[in-house]
Specification:
It is built from eight helices and 14 strands. It is globular. It is an alpha/beta fold.
């Protein structure tokens, strides 16, 4: 195994402008990059707008790729409320969209929804029956019922029952945590991990798994009636090593890690502290490395 500490240092960008002309397509994360769960990051939206305005042989496109467990229109509504301009992106693709497609392959199935009611739009237009846990043929996990107070441990008994009956689960949000109001909130991924740990069957819809990248590349090709862009001209921007960076790496796509996101505390980035600190040491301990790091997405 290579010595990660001895690997070439990962460059730190002052702004996306330093590398923007190298790419025709940006696959941009949402939570932690464009907003913090409370307010939009204005500079990030402006950076994407400026990128989309660059000249090139192909149009410069931005697809927002999110592990949100709801259809893309719901994410767009959230972004509108946070002040993220629509001209910062060309399309949105969510793990909720992929979950919807997976469920469409099982018409008439009895499904138990494990998660808050706000995620129920994921089932709109589908031929299925939402039922109690005891009646379920499949579980769709979109999150914890109360992510302010609960942990995966609160679901151990229910998961054990599903496992005993060999009920498959779709995880509609593979994230373990998400940033909200400068706090890290548990996501559906922690429940899915607990289920997989006891031998439960889990299908993950979203990053870091390949299908969402394939779907994003296919969508990019339809925006202008062109073929999907060359992978060497695609970059993923995100704030999570486990999903954004690992997923891009597995898909053969370059990546830029936004440091002031869910890893901010690990990197010593607080409101009072603005230095990236010993970034090389932190990166040497991660399972994958980004191609570059930027403190926030700015131009």
């Amino acid at each position: 195994m290579p010595d990660r500490a001895a690997a070439a240092p990962v460059p730190t960008l002052r702004g996306f402008a330093e590398v923007a002309e190298s790419y025709d397509l940006v696959l941009c994360d949402v939570w932690g990059v464009l907003h913090d769960g409370r307010i939009g990051h204005r500079a990030a939206g402006e950076a994407l707008i400026r990128y989309r305005g660059l000249p090139g042989e192909r149009p410069r496109r931005v697809i927002l790729v999110s592990n949100a467990p709801r259809p893309w229109r719901g994410v767009q509504t959230i972004l509108d409320g946070y002040g993220v301009p629509r001209d910062a992106y060309d399309a949105i693709l969510t793990s909720g969209d992929l979950t919807h497609e997976l469920l469409a392959q099982h018409p008439g199935e009895r499904v138990y929804h494990l998660g808050p009611d706000r995620d129920r739009p994921i089932y709109e237009g589908l031929d299925l029956n939402l039922v109690s846990p005891a009646e379920a043929q499949r579980v769709v996990c979109t999150g914890l019922f109360d992510d302010d107070t609960e942990t995966a441990e609160d679901y151990r008994e229910a998961l054990a029952d599903f496992r005993a009956r060999e009920i498959p689960m779709i995880c509609a949000n593979p994230d373990l945590v998400v940033e909200r109001n400068r706090q890290l909130i548990p996501c559906a991924g922690v429940i899915a991990a607990a289920y997989a740990e006891i031998g439960g069957e889990v299908v993950y819809a979203g990053k870091p798994y390949r299908p969402i990248y394939d779907a994003a590349l296919a969508k990019a090709g339809t925006l202008d009636g062109l073929s999907a862009p060359d992978l060497t001209r695609v970059v993923a921007v995100g704030d999570a090593i486990r999903t954004d960076i690992a997923g891009a790496s597995a898909a053969g796509i370059a990546s830029i890690l936004v440091a002031r996101g869910i890893h901010a505390e690990e990197l010593g980035l607080t409101a009072e502290h603005h230095s990236l600190g010993d970034l090389a040491d932190w990166l040497s301990r991660q399972p994958v490395r980004p191609d570059a790091v930027i403190e926030r997405l700015v131009w």
